[in-house]
Give the backbone structure.
Amino acid sequence: MVKSREEVIREFNEEVNMSADELEKWLEDPKSTKAGTGVGIESGHKIIEILRKNPEKDPEKYDEEDIAHMRKVVSYAKRHLAQEDHLKDTKTRTELENAKSTIRSVYFSPNACRNAYSSSLKNWGHVSLGLNAIQASLTSVGLAGSRQIAGRRAGRQRGAAQGRQSRYR
């Protein structure tokens, strides 16, 4: 089933949690090129264009080309986040640390972003954060319901990690 325009915009704005400036700075860092193929870098530049073109995130200001790329970003992020959960079930910590993967840092350090685990997704504008960092970020920009949004995201990360954290200590 194809997601509606509104759903794609909402999910894009949830998954892309870096500002245009943060993403641009990351893409200029040599670490970003070690994270994967040029497709992620190209996508990151397109995301920057979308973010700068519509900083208010007004749904009416996105054109069909924007929506098409937003759909691609959402699909990539969801697929990779799901793959991470599977990898954590089947690999040791050492294997995960050495993998060219998008393993999220929340399992190893809940309130830190460790580039070795999240750099591929960073090319696509997504930084995995612990609950406190998400709440602080959302509260600082005055988003209503920030605790609910942050709790939902951190809950998704925590829920996937339950029962596996002791394996990595």
